[in-house]
Design brief:
By secondary structure, this protein is mainly β. The protein has one domain: Electron Transport, Fmn-binding Protein, Chain A (Pnp Oxidase, Chain A), CATH 2.30.110.10. It has a seven-stranded antiparallel beta sheet with strand order 3-2-6-9-10-5-4. The mean pLDDT is 89.
């Protein structure tokens, strides 16, 4: 039995605080999307918890990026992107890639994917992708990307985002 009820904000819609509070109960994994900026040859990236598989045939994934992102224009310009599935011990990596400005790769260890993009040391898996479509969606853009190559990378549990915080996943025994 539900304990609450719909509380409309302006225009009869839920307010953004309530929206975040309720959707925060949906646990998500966290990824880092990386590339090499074609203009300066430096690694660039961002963190996202809005990543999902879309299709097996063709192999498609999707993620959402805020229109205010200063990293997305650099990533968008690359021929391919690499999605890194972050491990539970990589919360600091997530925070570094989510920060505004600065050298997001300072102190991070990485190797090149076959597509030439950063695969972060300790990431559970990586997927080299090419952007196939972008769809406007409120204050974000939904990016649909075709998977070109992928592989597992490290062992461990996933970095999970839940109720505004980060944690791991305890496997059932």
């Amino acid at each position: 039995m539900p304990t609450g009820h719909f509380q409309p904000g302006q225009n009869g819609r839920p307010d953004s605080l309530r929206f975040r509070q309720v959707l925060g109960r949906f646990a998500t994994g966290v990824v880092a999307i990386t590339a090499v900026d074609p203009l300066d040859g430096l690694p660039c990236g961002l963190a996202a918890n809005s990543f999902t598989s879309v299709s097996l045939d063709p192999p498609l994934v999707a993620f959402c990026v805020a229109y205010t992102s200063t990293s997305w224009p650099k990533l968008r310009g690359a021929k391919a992107l690499t999605v890194n599935v972050l491990a539970e011990h990589q919360q600091s990596v997530c925070a570094q890639l989510a920060a505004k400005g600065g050298d997001k790769f300072a102190g991070l260890e990485w190797t090149e994917s076959p597509g030439g993009n950063p695969v972060l040391e300790g990431a559970l898996a990586w997927l080299d992708c090419a952007v196939e479509a972008e769809h406007p969606a409120g204050d974000h853009v939904i990016v649909v990307a075709r998977v070109l190559r992928l592989d597992t990378h490290a062992d461990g549990g996933p970095l999970v985002f839940f109720r505004g915080g980060y944690g791991g996943f305890v496997e059932p025994s």
